């Protein structure tokens, strides 16, 4: 794939941020021409991981579906010199070879794009994702390559932020702890669960007291096994402690020992580190467990109210 030639400074346009994205997330900026919020992720990822991260943030992997969106995305690229190779777009053919569509299902033949020289070339018959280059042209690339990417959230009528500081109404504030919680019924591995909570602006739940253990027990009780379709372990959920593969040095994901954090009640016989169990979990009775990091389980996320509206979170987000 040919990337791009040096872009003349004459083509550099300034990014006009009309308003800070404080009605969506503190880490997104509002672009009036795009009628929504956008965020550049500078750390490269595969296309699938980029798509998932945008989804977890409540947005979508951006595609230049309109002239205004194309202009906004190109501005972001041209004003961030760290992005030298372009960004993934949401346009892909991962469902069916050659059938390109955006994340929201708009077919490529309805999107006005300009191809870079010698593109598309479908090198090695293995290029099913589209990259936007800093000069605004497009190229097809391998979806497993890693590139930066842009997430986009369209402004919708009556979109409102709740008292947990998010538009995701699955989060509910519990006044006993001052934290908001969300129970994810779809099973994920512990690393994927960690990523999901982080993307939503929170973290895997950390139990800091008997009161919080009771809160999580009550949250768990709202989701009996019959409400979670699928064949996976349902009597345990991933939460935020790990032994860092040190065979017994259990700490929260915020660096405290469980005792320092305020709760270290293990279930009987746990932790047993059975066949290398390095990740933290909680049984439905509120007691702690160690579990295989790659075992898919439900999980609970925790966030502070307002932590998506201003950079005031003490949770490391």
Describe the structure.
This protein has 5 helices and 16 strands. It has 317 residues and is α+β, with helices and mostly antiparallel strands. It has 2 domains: 146 residues, Mannose-Binding Protein A, subunit A (Mannose-Binding Protein A, Chain A); 132 residues, Mannose-Binding Protein A, subunit A (Mannose-Binding Protein A, Chain A). It has a 5-stranded antiparallel beta sheet, with helices on both faces. The protein has a 4-stranded antiparallel beta sheet with strand order 9-10-16-11, sandwiched between helices. A hairpin with a 4-residue loop joins strand 14 and strand 15. Helix 1 crosses helix 3. It is elongated and about 65 Å long. The N terminus and C terminus are likely disordered.
């Amino acid at each position: 794939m040919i990337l791009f030639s040096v872009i003349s400074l004459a083509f550099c346009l300034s990014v006009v941020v009309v308003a800070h994205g404080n009605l969506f997330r503190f880490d997104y900026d509002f672009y009036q021409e795009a009628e929504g919020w956008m965020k550049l992720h500078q750390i490269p990822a595969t296309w699938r991981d980029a798509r998932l991260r945008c989804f977890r943030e409540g947005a979508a992997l951006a595609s230049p579906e309109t002239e205004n969106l194309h202009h906004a995305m190109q501005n972001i690229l041209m004003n961030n010199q760290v992005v030298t190779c372009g960004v993934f777009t949401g346009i892909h053919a991962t469902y069916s070879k050659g059938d390109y569509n955006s994340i929201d299902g708009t077919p490529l033949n309805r999107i006005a794009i300009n191809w870079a020289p010698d593109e598309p070339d479908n090198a090695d018959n293995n290029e099913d994702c589209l990259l936007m280059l800093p000069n605004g042209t497009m190229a097809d690339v391998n979806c497993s390559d890693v590139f930066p990417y842009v997430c986009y959230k369209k402004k919708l009528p009556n979109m409102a932020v709740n008292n947990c500081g998010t538009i995701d109404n699955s989060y509910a504030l519990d006044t006993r702890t001052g934290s908001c919680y969300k129970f994810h019924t779809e099973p994920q591995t512990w690393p994927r669960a960690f990523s999901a909570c982080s993307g939503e602006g929170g973290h895997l739940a950390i139990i800091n007291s008997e009161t919080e253990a009771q809160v999580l027990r009550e949250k768990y009780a709202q989701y009996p096994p019959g409400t979670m379709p699928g064949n996976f372990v349902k009597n345990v959920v991933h939460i935020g402690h790990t032994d860092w593969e040190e065979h017994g040095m259990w700490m929260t994901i915020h660096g405290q020992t469980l005792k320092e954090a305020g709760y270290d009640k293990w279930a009987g016989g746990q932790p047993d580190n059975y066949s290398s169990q390095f990740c933290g979990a909680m049984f439905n009775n509120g007691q702690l467990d160690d579990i295989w990091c790659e075992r898919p389980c439900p999980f609970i996320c925790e966030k502070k109210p307002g932590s998506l509206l201003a950079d005031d979170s003490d949770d490391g987000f």
